[in-house]
Amino acid sequence: MKIATYNVNGVNGRLPVLLRWLGEAEPDIVILQELKASQEKFPRVELAKLGYQAIWHGQKSWNGVAILSRVGEIHETRRGLPDDPDPMQSRYIEAAVNGILICGLYLPNGNPRPGPKFDYKLRWLDRLIEHAATLFETGLPVLLAGDFNVIPTERDVCKPERWREDALFAPEVRDAFVQLTSQGWTDALRAVHLDETIYTFWDYFRNAYARNAGLRIDHLLLSPMLAGRLVDAQVDIHVRGWEKSSDHAPVWVMLSDEPLHTRKRAKPRHLAA
User: Any catalytic annotation for residue 6?
Assistant: First the structure.
């Protein structure tokens, strides 16, 4: 099963890019962020033509998250975090899809720092950590995915010295991400690309994409049941180079149908009955 997360940066304005990528990559489940569309303006019909059903939590002009599936019904379990510090902002959606609990999130940017927006980001992270712990303790196959607006380490950003004062790289934010992953979640992209330079976002300014001056802020975190099924994790970097594309690229994981360590190996031909 192929599961992707993609900050589309405007689902209607960049719909041709989204549809092109869906047709090319053929992900089974997709988590979208930054829809920038009210509930009634979500392009449900266009996505259905490609075989995707969807649920979404829209917000006019800002934020917005969605889950798409072409591998079965989407059973919504939650929209908005428990004790959400600002429930008017559409930043979290959760649903059971094909045996996996999918949690799609768009974490606040937090700039400028210090200030109210940064304080809101920290409060939102606290609520996410608490809810993630509850989900983790169920032992179910759970995936937390989306635009976290967190640069976890120096290797996840080009020229980290330029980001010292930014809310995406603040010590409090990075510590919170460590607190989250320390619950037992596997950072899928980093698990596959241990020490590699790999980014998911490139600013529109200063020719960042061409220079590969990027950030890794889009993450897929796997519970142990899913981590044992991890086959691959990649970034569709080329999509960022398409005309009128988002400043993010799609990120995806490939999961096997069963834990890799429990798969039965085929017998050598000379031993086969």
Answer: no
pLDDT at 263 over 80: no
List of residues 6+ apart from 45 with CB closer than 8 A: none
Whole-angstrom distance, CA of residue 250 vs CA of residue 201: 9
Phi–psi pair at 106, nearest 5 degrees: -130, 95
Backbone conformation region of residue 44, classed left if phi is above 0, alpha if psi is from -120 to 50, else beta: alpha
Question: One-letter amino acid identity for 49?
Answer: K
Which of 147, 156, 187, 218 is catalytic? The answer is: 147
pLDDT tens per residue across span 62-74: 999 999 999 999 9
pTM, 2 dp: 0.94
Residue 193 is labelled as binding a ligand: no
**232 in a labelled binding site:** no
The owner of tokens 């980093």 is: 190
Using only the alpha carbons of the chain, give its radius of gyration: 18
Contact 92, 105 (CB under 8 A): yes
Residue from 179, 126, 178 nearest 152 by CA: 178
Reduce the DSSP state of residue 218 to 3 states and report it: strand
Give the Cβ contact number of residue 23 at 10 Å: 9
Which backbone phi and psi does 141 adopt, to 5 degrees?
A: -75, 110
Domains contained in the chain, CATH given: 2-261 (3.60.10.10)
CA distance linking residue 216 with residue 177, whole number of Å: 13
Q: Is 147 annotated as a binding residue?
A: yes
Res. 269: pLDDT tops 60: no
pLDDT digits (tens, 9 = 90+) for 105-151: 999 999 999 999 999 999 999 999 999 999 999 999 999 999 999 99
147 is catalytic: yes
Q: Is 248 a catalytic residue?
A: yes
Stretch 197-219: mean pLDDT: 97
